UniProtKB/TrEMBL annotation:
It comes from Streptomyces fildesensis. It comes from the Bacteria. Keywords: Metal-binding, Oxidoreductase, Zinc. Its EC number is 1.1.1.2. It catalyses: a primary alcohol + NADP(+) = an aldehyde + NADPH + H(+). Pfam families: ADH_N (PF08240), ADH_zinc_N (PF00107). GO terms for molecular function: oxidoreductase activity. Belongs to the zinc-containing alcohol dehydrogenase family. Residues 9-342 form the Enoyl reductase (ER) domain. InterPro entries: ADH-like_C, ADH-like_N, ADH_Zn_CS, CAD-like, ER, GroES-like_sf, NAD(P)-bd_dom_sf. Gene3D superfamilies: Medium-chain alcohol dehydrogenases, catalytic domain, NAD(P)-binding Rossmann-like Domain. This is alcohol dehydrogenase (NADP(+)). Its cofactor is Zn(2+).
Amino acid sequence: MTTTVSAYAAPSAAAPLERTTIPRRAVREHDVLIDIKFAGICHSDIHQVRDEWGGAKFPMVPGHEIAGIVTEVGPGVTKYAVGDRVGVGCFVDSCRECENCLAGDEQYCLNGGTGTYNATGRDGEPTYGGYSTHIVVDEHFVLRIPEGVELDAAAPLLCAGITLYSPLKHWNAGPGKKVAIVGMGGLGHMGVKIAAALGAEVTVLSQSLRKQDDAKRFGAEHYHATSDESTFEQLAGTFDLIVNTVSANLDLDAYLALLRVDGTLVNVGAPEHPVSLNVFSLIGGRRSLAGSMIGGIRETQEMLDFCAEHGLGAEIEVISADRINEAYDRVVASDVRYRFVIDTATI
């Protein structure tokens, strides 16, 4: 048995998103039915809808920043009850048996995790994301949203928040560490907030100075424009950790030169085209170039609890569903401070 719910979907890569209906499975033994209240718009939604990364499955219902309320639970559910405030992030299943899953790194499932949308579940059915009124998810992949974070501001934490929290924790951002965040968009602004809350000395590297006041308000101590060539001379050999959040191709050699000995440049933004670098940029300072995805379920819950403890949430602009296509264009133009969130009551 399935239920039909309202959603916004892209019928093809060249078409705007439009209102439609999609099937949702009946609640199984360990499933949770969530009444979605808010869904964040991530830049990766746009990449996938426009098939810029390849492998797009249409019709596509994007959305992996989901916040809502539990309205039904399966008979075997033990973690959640009707009325609980919950969220769903970038994946809704994994094998749960490989070494990565057992270690709590389900995002790196060796047998392939199941994306919240644009994927095929282990039941052979396509997955549809959060631009909809309801979703059914196994309780293992559902997160509890603490009372200290409003649901609308919590939605982007399920992707943007954990995408920055995971590398900042893994590479030990904290007191005594100099951390640079490249880009002050949906990802970057959360990186500033989280790195500052962890106790690091935070610098923002952005194309212009127009978001400098915001960055300082979020906890950054320093702010530099990357369009100014003197920035790279002034900051050479400065940082222990640089987290690059932008999805454009950058001059990696220039950014690697900003690292101290044993420093690391971590990429969380995913550019459309391959990148290149001179390996001497790594050899010269025993520097590392790394990548990071989201976190596993345990770490994502840790992030949500951390944000509640420190009063952190995303800076958002709540929109009605009929403005999704406009919002996509504005995201591409960097015209949002700092995350669009869909009020799903308007779907």
